[in-house]
Sugar-specific transcriptional regulator TrmB family protein
Amino acid sequence: MPSRETANTTSVLRIMNERAVYEQIRVLGPVSRPQLAAATGLSKPTISLALADLERVGLVKAIGQSTGGAGRTARLYGIRPETGWVIGLDVGREWIRAALADLSGEIAVRKDVRSVGAGGAAGPAALIDRIGRIVDDLAKAADGDVTGIVLGTPGVHDVENRRLRLAPNLPGWDEPGVTGRLARRLPAPYTIENDIDLAALGEQGYGLGEGVPHFAFVSIGTGIGMGIVLNGELHRGARGAAGEIAWLPFGEADPRETRSHGMLESVASGPGVVAAARRLGMTGAVTAKRVFDDARAGDPLAAEAVAHEAGHVARALASVVALLDPDLIVLGGGIGGHGADVLLGAVRERLEAMTPLGAPRVEVSALGDDAVVLGALATGLQTARDLVFARAVTES
């Protein structure tokens, strides 16, 4: 009679084999038994046992037969993507962008909704309610069975005090207990991540950062932030504040006057571009979009304002190069992305002149406004797949 220790070891090996098979089906599917054996290194009998168990607990299903080529046809297997659902949200000053995806990563529903008032100016209660209603709408498409929620927001999550620090563009989010109130409003376990960190993960999974071991994602818009990937992993720092470059001491303002937004952000964000354009003599309804549009059209004042912006950005990137030595810097955000045609060349040229260390490749994100949402989904799906698998094998 086998000992309990032997039985436990056998059970652990069985689960490990099933997990390996499940992951390969997810990555390669539709896939056959011989292909699974080649991908996992497991024997065909072990593959057959794992498939039988995975089918029994409802994680995978036969989805057809292979066709073409010589020899016998083979049954093909795929995961059941509807066994788990993830909601990803990007909560910003102007917009809340959200998406629902199944376990395959397929996006089932996508929503972009205006934030409350001027970036949540009505207070955190109204913004929490708006987020909750968006999540409720998305959850209907999953029949209410949401496995997890990942929310990207400016600032640093203070878990102990349940609040967000360093998020001046979302008034009230630094109140103690605010994230606890958010948790009570949402229908499933949730995670809060810095939005720019999630954008970096989105870039790693879906964009220019794929396969790049060391890169930085720099977002320039209403605010400024950076997500850092080192050795293929997101780098958060000791207190979760790595990449908060808004507080780099660049600019002419008194640091005591820029503690709410940061010295770099005060000159290089959207409001900083507007302020520079007005100082140079632009009149009327000046917005960052207008500055860049006028620069494209050849307006000399707008072009000078954009040149100032390029100088601020290049100095910040030179600091990033000296500290991190990245292979790649990806620019995103409303200015970093949408103003690329008039900004990128000047930034590259100035950065090259500023650093003797050798400027890395500087590119504009192809993900646009979806970078944070895609990063939220990628993060949530990794956790959701673990939870769904663990739940299925435990209950079996």
